[in-house]
Amino acid sequence: LAFIKEHSEGRAVIWLGDFNLRPSDPPDKPQLDKIVAEIGVETACDALKCAEPDHIDRIYFRSGDVVKLKAVFWQVEPQFIDAEGEPLSDHPAISARFSWSR
Question: Which of 37, 76, 81, 89 has its CA 20 to 30 A from that of 64?
Fold first, then answer.
């Protein structure tokens, strides 16, 4: 959070990763709320009111002074499997698409 605050003031940001935190888990929720409050982001899933908001992978974004971002699509990606059809991870991958304007 400190790095993002220091290096992105006034800029649009897309930040994603495996946070290992779930909003439905009471000890995790304050940590997720801190991310939102400190750097002014929201998740693509929340912005689109997706049906599966409890993933540990999260795609955060915010607009900047010049570039405006809007989440337009979010989904679970089913194609990340091995030759036997087994998932490559212990949880499904997600993706999002954004539109942007100046």
Answer: 76
Tokens 């499997």 sit on residue? 81
The answer to whether residues 71 and 96 touch, using CB atoms and an 8 Å cutoff, is yes
Pairing outcome for strands 42-43 and 68-77: unpaired
pLDDT tens across 45-54, in order?
999 999 999 9
pTM: 0.91
Closest to 25 (Cα-Cα) out of 47, 55, 60, 52: 55
What single-letter DSSP state applies at residue 102? -
User: What gap in Å lies between CA 12 and CA 66, rounded to an integer?
Assistant: 8
* Average model confidence (pLDDT) across the chain: 95
- The half-sphere exposure of 85 on its side-chain side, counting CA atoms within 13 A, is 0
What CA–CA distances, in Å, run from 39 to 13, 19, 34, 61?
Answer: 9, 16, 8, 10
